[in-house]
């Protein structure tokens, strides 16, 4: 494939990615609002990440590829709502790892990250299993090629591990 063809496809993929992200975000916002959960999409993502392990604001920023300054109001709001707490690090007083409170853990279970009503799930259902698996594999491969941030690779590997664990549970239970 000639270089200009790659450039044409890159433009097409960027445009389509932007549309898909915008549509998925709108759908997630609507489902959060419908559930009256009182959390923004970014707040919901922070809660979900902290449900796995404690993380400093700086680490959270690297994980999400966002500046810490962008996350401060989000974390402050989650803390004010009693969902997140800042912990003291006994070995380094400058560090304040974030963790979920019991209220935050309960909220995390209610957040509709992906469910049967999710616009992406419905759309993937229309593509079918084979095309969906191809699309997911290609996107994972592209994310790994494009990533210069080790957290992105970690996120992809974490998502793949969660997928394997979920499939294992479904195969055992069903």
From TrEMBL:
Locate the HTH marR-type domain: which residues?
A: 13-144
Q: Which SUPFAM superfamilies match?
A: Winged helix' DNA-binding domain
Listed name of the protein: MarR family transcriptional regulator
Instruction: Give GO MF terms, alphabetically.
Output: DNA-binding transcription factor activity
One GO biological process term: response to stress
The protein's matches in PANTHER family, at most eight in alphabetical order, are given as:
HTH-TYPE TRANSCRIPTIONAL REPRESSOR YETL, TRANSCRIPTIONAL REGULATOR, MARR FAMILY
Question: Do you know which Pfam families this protein is assigned to?
Answer: MarR
Q: Which domain of life is it from?
A: Archaea
InterPro entries, A to Z: HTH_MarR-typ, MarR/SlyA-like, WH-like_DNA-bd_sf, WH_DNA-bd_sf
Secretion signal, residue range per the UniProt entry:
none
Q: What is the organism of origin for this protein?
A: Candidatus Iainarchaeum sp
**TM stretches of this protein:** none
């Amino acid at each position: 494939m000639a270089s200009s063809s790659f450039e044409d496809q890159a433009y097409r993929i960027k445009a389509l990615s932007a549309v898909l992200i915008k549509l998925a975000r709108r759908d997630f916002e609507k489902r959060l609002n419908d559930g009256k959960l009182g959390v923004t999409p970014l707040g919901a993502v922070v809660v979900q990440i902290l449900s796995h392990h404690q993380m400093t604001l700086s680490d959270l920023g690297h994980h999400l590829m966002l500046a810490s300054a962008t996350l401060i109001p989000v974390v402050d709001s989650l803390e004010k709502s009693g969902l997140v707490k800042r912990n003291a690090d006994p070995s380094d007083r400058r560090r304040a790892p974030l963790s979920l409170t019991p209220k935050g853990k309960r909220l995390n279970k209610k957040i509709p990250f992906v469910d049967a009503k999710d616009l992406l799930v419905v759309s993937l259902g229309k593509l079918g299993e084979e095309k969906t698996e191809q699309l997911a594999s290609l996107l994972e491969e592209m994310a790994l090629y494009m990533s210069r941030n080790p957290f992105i690779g970690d996120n992809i590997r974490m998502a793949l591990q969660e997928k394997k664990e979920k499939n294992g549970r479904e195969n055992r239970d069903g």
